[in-house]
Amino acid sequence: QLQLVASGGALVQPGGSLRLSCAASGSSLDHYAIGWFRQAPGKEHEGVSCIGSSGASTNHANSVKGRFTISRDNAKNTVYLQMNSLKPEDTAVYYCAAGSGSSFLRIKYDYWGQGTQVTVSS
């Protein structure tokens, strides 16, 4: 059974950077697409970034394009989300998920991590 643990969330000032990690155990991530989602208080879940199983294809939401980068290291069974030029509106709980296809649709993902809090504030 695949298990995901998201980590790396923190309090950071506007303009700062963070790198989130999504570490897998129980199974290899090799065959899974990975998505990062976020949910801010009072808002809907939002797809942020996703990456195919090989890492060759990535996609980012318009709200984070040019600031966030998703990558994966299958040897380490880990996917990363590098977040630069952070804004207060990036404040949310960030979740990683594994599924069969790279997508921003939550229904495409079968396994979810527990979430990590990112707070962007001065």
Brief overview:
The protein has 122 residues and is an all-beta fold. The chain is built from no helices and eleven strands. A hairpin with a 6-residue loop joins strand 5 (46-51) and strand 6.
N-to-C order of helices and strands: EEEEEEEEEEE
Sequence stretches where pLDDT stays below 50 over 5 or more residues: none
Distance between the termini: 40 Å
Q: What proportion of the residues is helical, as a percent range?
A: under 10%
What does this structure look like?
The chain is an all-beta fold and 122 residues long. The protein contains no helices and eleven strands. Strands 2, 4, 5, 6, 9, 10 and 11 form a seven-stranded mixed beta sheet that branches. A four-stranded antiparallel beta sheet has the order 1-3-8-7, with no helix packed on it. It starts with a strand and ends with a strand. The mean pLDDT is 95.
